[in-house]
Amino acid sequence: MSLENFLNHAVSSWMNEDGPDSDIVLSSRIRLARNLEEYKFPVLLSTEEGQAIIEKLKSIIPDSGTLSFGKLELLQMHELQPLQKRVLVEKHLISPNLAEDSPFGACLLSESEDVSVMVNEEDHIRIQCLFPGLQLTEALNEAYEVDDWLEGSIRYAFSEEYGYLTSCPTNVGTGLRASVMMHLPGLLLTQQINGIIPAISQLGLVVRGIYGEGSEALGNIFQISNQITFGKTEEDIVEDLTGVVSQLIAQERSAREALAKTSHIQLEDRVFRSFGILSNSRIIETKEAAQCLSDVRLGIDMGYIKNISRSILNELMILTQPGFLQQYAGGPLRPEERDIRRAALIRERLKFELDNK
């Protein structure tokens, strides 16, 4: 797949698939941090050393065609425009740090975009696997496949006592970050979320916004992930996170049922007001669009809206981000121009969906 395809298709193909509990869990992600034995950590690398690591990976890319998800393609950050990198961040294919800070960064991507290997970010290698719904074990198994393939050609920095050695001490051990992206409007509307987040933190997990650390929970979407990587196996970490997420799913469903019983007409009114805004507005900001899309998705999940697919909302959540709007426009846009284009794009996409039902 070409760079243009990665940039021009808002939704990765894996996002069009339904997974277990996908009405609440948007995605499951596994990330493995690894470093090469013979090189300093990326923060200390020279440009020549950083490029040498990329060349080493380039040499084994042809062999990636034997992997179950197909061949990987290399994208080098210095060859991309800032806007192109921003789009890849908005698609969760690379991190903001790789886009902004790495002069010799790169990324290996699978055609379906469920596998992404960031190169020379905080660590030499960060393997990321994404699955729809609650499928942490499946994502872990795919990450293992990539990990084994890479380890067949390169030597990792590994200690018998401490495990995988990483740039940040909090990743030492398994090097594993497991996370799920959850849509939790019921818990916010019933004001239960404020009590739940501190309880989750006490279990060694962390709650972040849609784009990870420091980001906002736009559209009532939260990322739940592990903090502990040392002293547990990868399977134990995944099992613990799955258990907490399963409880959150049950609580979110209970909250939605309570809202349907006690505030049915108010909830239905909220859903259709948001649908009206999305269908008719001429100017809309990112935050308002995300909130309205969340309300409409909730309306679809609860059966209030029956003629729009959930995947359209997944698409619009990404397509209406600033980077994508400017990518489609062919260049930079002022904030007010983005707001106008965002509103027009949403109107046209919803109309197309309704006209083709």
From TrEMBL:
Residues 24-255 form the Phosphagen kinase C-terminal domain. ATP binds at residues 27-31, 92, 126, 177-181, 208-213. A motif (RDXXRA motif of the pArg binding pocket involved in allosteric regulation) lies at residues 338-343. It is an enzyme of class 2 (transferase). Its EC number is 2.7.14.1. It comes from the Bacteria. The keyword Iron-sulfur does not apply. GO terms for biological process: phosphocreatine biosynthetic process. One of its GO terms (molecular function) is ATP binding. It catalyses: L-arginyl-[protein] + ATP = N(omega)-phospho-L-arginyl-[protein] + ADP + H(+). CDD domains: bacterial_phosphagen_kinase (cd07930). Keywords: Allosteric enzyme, ATP-binding, Kinase, Nucleotide-binding, Transferase. GO terms for cellular component: extracellular space. InterPro entries: Arg_Kinase, ATP-guanido_PTrfase, ATP-guanido_PTrfase_AS, ATP-guanido_PTrfase_cat, Gln_synth/guanido_kin_cat_dom. SUPFAM superfamilies: Glutamine synthetase/guanido kinase. Appears to be allosterically activated by the binding of pArg-containing polypeptides to the pArg-binding pocket localized in the C-terminal domain of McsB. Catalyzes the specific phosphorylation of arginine residues in a large number of proteins. Is part of the bacterial stress response system. Protein arginine phosphorylation has a physiologically important role and is involved in the regulation of many critical cellular processes, such as protein homeostasis, motility, competence, and stringent and stress responses, by regulating gene expression and protein activity. PANTHER family: ARGININE KINASE 1-RELATED, ARGININE OR CREATINE KINASE. Belongs to the ATP:guanido phosphotransferase family. This is Protein-arginine kinase. It comes from Neobacillus notoginsengisoli.
